[in-house]
Each structure stands twice: as C-alpha cells, then as structure tokens.
Amino acid sequence: MAPQREWLEKDYYATLGVSKDATATEIKKAYRRLARENHPDARPDDSRAEARFKEIGEAYAVVGDAETRKEYDELRRLGASGFRGMGGGFPGGADAGFPGGFGGADLGDILGQMFGGGGAPGAGRGRAGTSRSRPRRGADVETDLHLTFEDALEGISTTINITTEGPCATCHGSGAAPGSSRVTCSACSGSGEVVVDQGMFSFAQPCGRCGGAGTIVETPCRTCSGTGRTLTPRRIQVRIPAGVRDGATVRVAGRGQAGRDGGPAGDVLVRVRVAEHPVFGRRGDDVTLELPLTFAEAALGTTVTVPTPGGETRRIRIPAGTQPGKVLRVRGQGAPRTRGTGSGDLLVTVRVSIPERLDAEQERLVRELAALDDTTARDAALGVGTEA
C-alpha cells in the first residue's frame, strides 16, 4: 500500500485502542474484538457503529500489515520531528534516519514522490505533469425493502427501483457539449493540483479551479450542466436469502453509483423490513407461537393441533399439570438458519385462558372445585396461615 497523506492526521493505534508498541498479535486481537462489536450484522440500526466498523478496518489495513505499518510509523515520526519546509532539514541531521535519506529536501517533494507525484513545487504554482485524477469508487446506494413474514422465512428474488448517478448519455461523461471538448486548466497546468505553504510544511492539494481533474469545461453540456453525470432510475434484481431477519442488510455488489475516472461502481445496500405476523413471532432462528389453553386442558392434559410457518399443522401433546408460560418445542419448524444448515424450532408458549364470565352451571362446578383446592403449600411459601 502506498503511503497516504491522511496518515499524518489519523492515529490508527488509538482507533484500535492499542499502543504504538503493540505486537502484531495484540493488534489482531483488538481488531477482531472491535470488528465483532461494531459489525453491521450485530448492530444493524446503528449508523455510528457502521462508520466505526469502517474506521477499524482502515486502521487494521495499515498497522495490521508489517510493511505498511513500518511506512506508517516512519511517516508519523517524520511529521512529529518538526521537519521544516523549503530546505530547512531535519532536527538531528538532514536525513533524520529516514530510509534512503532526503538530504534536506522539502517535505512537499518527499510526500509528492511517496504519493506518486513529481516535479519541483513552488508555493501557489501548479505542478507540471499529467493529471493526478485517480480512479474513484462509486458511492453505495441504500434502500429499504419491505417483506411479509412468510417471504422473509422462505427467501425471495425480486426487483427493486433505485436512482443512481452515472455518466451523462449526451456527453458520455465529459461534461462538454457535443462538438466541443475539455481544455487544460491554466491554474494547475493540467496536473490537477497546486502546492501551497502551510506553516512549516508545503503540501499539494487539489486545484480549486478544476477540482483536481486537470481540465475544465468551457462549453457545458446542456443535459448535465457540465457535470458529466446525470441521475437515472434503474431496476435491479436482488435475491433475499431464506431466513433473513428484520433490520438485516443485503449487499448487491457493483450495482450502486458508477465510479469516476475508471473506478469501480459502489454497491446497493438493501435494508430488510419484515412485517409482523398475526400469529407467529421471531426469536433468532426460532419462530414463536402463543397457545391459549383452558384451565381443564392445562390441568388434565390434552393433544392440540398448531399451525407451522410452512403452512402445515402439527399435533402436540400437552402434559397434565402444564403451567402457564411453559414452552414446548417443535423441532425443525422454525426459520431457515442464516448461518449453517437446517432450521430453527417452533417455540409454543402455553397461555391459560380464564373465562371472563361463567354461566350458572360453570360457576357451580368451579365453586365445588374451589372447595377442594389445597392452599397449604402456597400459604407456607408466603409465610402466612389460614384463619381457624
């Protein structure tokens, strides 16, 4: 990986929560722990966690690789040494221990060479050479997809509508009106960047006139107003895997915003929203179901028929003396597992239904039963006694 200018500003060790002297093993452990805690699948509705996950990955890509880490550390040390621009040299010697030595060269030149530039900079002047525009990946496109409970369990292939930015069809992305072309930017002489002094350092930055392109449009295309990009509605196919959970994100690679300067397209991130079901619920890979029973059924035991998410029915036995809240498990009748093979289970929770009103015969029978009830165990557990 080539050294990057942002290395001077970003402390990747702090991002991973380790010291700059941490071993490779310590860095790997810290990365895995933070990546697991901030992974979008673990925290699907937390945008800050997603941003943090990207920062962690960026940090580990640099300090997790031995050679890249060496370059990063050396560049950070160079910046912290107080190197003075415009030939001032390094404290402690012209080369300050940097591999290869610099002989008092300006930091702007050094960084320019490290980052692929060249030529001698001058404050406020453009660099000679070719445009520094680099391929840039297109942005990701986010969209929501609403599914029924059944579709989420079974999986579905469907078409979604998105709007993406891409090259203008009239000017083919140049931004110039048909019959004209882009011209070299006079501010940067076509390099796409200018060099300015910033205190003790000299840095190259994108040219403000051409935006780093090295060329400008004198006769703009009317379709895209000279931007070279237009918004276009599109329909794309997306496959949602069986067992997907509410809030999960499905990535469709390479179908997002078009890249720039030959860069790859971004992705489409489909956030899944699953509607509630009137009968079933969801708990991980298991499907839940509440089963109302009468007092007699719970007390005496019975066999009942329950529905399953697949549309079939199953008969399950209710043991005598089943208590409210008891969970009965029907194996393999849950949601398809999102990791691994097979399916979860159907969890049937017993709810004892108490009638709100009794007719005369029912009331008589219940009173007879009440006369036979033994409350001794309850009173002993509460530490109270019955009146004589």
Which terms summarize this structure?
388 residues, alpha+beta, three-stranded mixed sheet, 15 strands, elongated
Task: Describe the protein.
With 388 residues, this protein is an alpha+beta fold. The chain contains 9 helices and 15 strands. The protein has helices at 12-16, 24-38, 47-63, 66-80, 107-114, 149-154, 295-300, 360-372, 376-382; strands spanning 141-147, 156-167, 183-184, 193-198, 201-206, 215-216, 229-240, 249-252, 268-274, 280-283, 286-294, 302-307, 313-318, 327-330, 346-353. The strands form 6 sheets. It has a 4-stranded mixed β-sheet. It has a 3-stranded mixed β-sheet with strand order 1-9-8. 21% of the residues are buried.
Distance between the termini: 88 Å
Number of beta-strand segments: 15
Helix count, DSSP H or I runs of 4 or more residues: 9
What kind of assembly state do the chains in view correspond to? single chain
Order the strands across the largest sheet as they lie in space.
Answer: 10-11-15-14
Q: Give the integer mean of the pLDDT values.
A: 82
> Per the principal axes of the C-alpha atoms, what is the gross shape?
elongated
Uncertain stretches: 83-108, 113-131
Would you tell me the structural class of the helices and strands? alpha+beta
The biggest sheet, with number of strands, parallel, antiparallel or mixed sense and barrel status, is: 4 strands, mixed
Task: Please state roughly what percent of the residues sit in beta strands, choosing from under 5%, 5-15%, 15-25%, 25-35%, 35-45% or over 45%.
Answer: 15-25%
